[in-house]
Automatic annotation (TrEMBL):
Residues 5-156 form the Peptidase S26 domain. This is Signal peptidase I. GO terms for molecular function: serine-type endopeptidase activity; signal peptidase activity. It comes from the Bacteria. Transmembrane segments: none annotated. PANTHER family: MITOCHONDRIAL INNER MEMBRANE PROTEASE SUBUNIT 1, PROTEASE FAMILY S26 MITOCHONDRIAL INNER MEMBRANE PROTEASE-RELATED. One of its GO terms (biological process) is signal peptide processing. Its EC number is 3.4.21.89. InterPro entries: LexA/Signal_pep-like_sf (IPR036286), Mito_IMP1_subunit (IPR052064), Pept_S26A_signal_pept_1 (IPR000223), Peptidase_S26 (IPR019533). Keywords: Hydrolase, Membrane, Protease. Belongs to the peptidase S26 family. IMP1 subfamily.
Amino acid sequence: MLRYIRIAAPIAILLCIPLFVASIFKVSGSSMEPIISHNSRVWIRVSAYDIRVPGTDLRLIPLRDPAAGDIVLLSHPRTGEAILKQVVGTPLQHLDLQNGSGQIGSYRFDLPNSSTLRLYSRVPPGYYMVLGTNQAASQDSRHFGFVPREAIRGKVLGIRHNGR
């Protein structure tokens, strides 16, 4: 019996790594170019922010919160599709929108189809603002709004570019 446990335990641990620690994600689209190109593969640390029940948004153990600048894997707020975006705004951070552009902290971005209205706001508690690095090709917080903390699934640790 002990012999079987010695064999089964390492196999079980190896099988659990993608569920609790890290996984590989294939990128489809150009919203994160030039940092991450179409068909690249990225190494995602799924336990970067919390330990979850695999396949769900249920957080078992919160570890830390995403920081501005992190590139994260998240569930699209409307479709549930897995997407990559960069965190540019964290909870309670000030947001300044004016004349077709916005600023949050030191990060500036364009606002498509915006008016000449000026608006000051804050990122709500428990929410994040995420943007694609290729703003012309990205559907992000400018389109679907702030992202709840529960939607952020992991952090990009490494990138293997297509053809390299």
